[in-house]
Design goal:
- It is found in: Membrane.
- With 216 residues, the chain is an all-alpha fold.
- It folds into 4 domains: 66 residues, no CATH class; 50 residues, no CATH class; 32 residues; 35 residues.
- Helix content is 75%, strand content 0%.
- The longest helix is centred in the last third of the chain and has 37 residues.
- The termini are far apart.
- The relative contact order is 0.05.
Length: 216
């Protein structure tokens, strides 16, 4: 197709040029950026270097474990089955996703990066025509998004209900302790009340108790 022939030139430029974001060079040579980077701890306390390294290791391990186990089940449908992707198309989709998330964040709108990148890939693929997009795969992903909301909601509710509505061993012990305390308190009050009445009985029989004045 015409689009396929036109894509050879930007693809060749992409492969021949080192397309990179030189963040460190920008930080060192741009004075406002350098000043902002150096003064970042004024408003937010800087984290220790060891903590950053530990966090990076955890993230790398988590990503590696995910890709080594079931990550391919996500990357394969997104990168192969949904639409044709090349480095330039992938860059365009990622860039569009970044813009959408940044703009939504400015307005406080919750967005999902997975949904954004899916729409971006469909947008890139639909430039060649609607038939170049695997709509069956998209419907499967859309159905999985909707199903996930209900499945996760019901699963969390079921787990939460285990600790709220089902009696546990600890709860049973607390109920037993409460009953014992109430019983002991009631017994003590009953004994004190009887002993008080018994002490006033002889005096009452002799008529020595002072009658309270009538307040009416």
């Amino acid at each position: 197709m015409e689009l396929e022939r036109q894509e050879d030139r930007p693809q060749d430029i992409w492969d021949s040029l080192p397309v990179e974001l030189m963040i460190k060079v920008l930080r060192d040579h741009d004075l406002p950026v350098f000043t902002l980077a150096e003064c970042r701890s004024v408003f937010t306390p800087a984290s220790p270097y060891s903590l950053g390294v530990f966090s990076a290791i955890c993230v790398i391990f988590a990503h590696g474990a995910g890709l080594a186990t079931y990550g391919y089940n996500v990357t394969r449908p997104m990168g192969v089955k949904l639409a044709k992707l090349t480095p330039t198309r992938g860059f365009a989709a990622e860039l569009a996703t970044t813009f959408v998330i940044m703009i939504a964040s400015q307005f406080g709108l919750p967005t999902s990066s997975s949904q954004c990148i899916t729409g971006a890939i469909i947008g890139v693929g639909i430039l060649e025509g609607s038939k170049k997009v695997n709509w069956t795969q998209f419907l499967k992903q859309f159905a999985s998004w909707v199903t996930t909301l209900f499945v996760i909601g019901l699963a969390v509710a079921a787990v939460f209900a285990q600790g709220i509505y089902i009696p546990s061993k600890i709860q049973g012990k607390e109920v037993t302790m409460c009953k014992d305390r109430v019983t002991n308190l009631t017994t003590k009050v009953y004994k004190d009340f009887n002993s008080s009445l018994q002490s006033y009985r002889p005096v009452a029989a002799q008529g020595l108790l002072v009658n309270l004045p009538n307040t009416t």
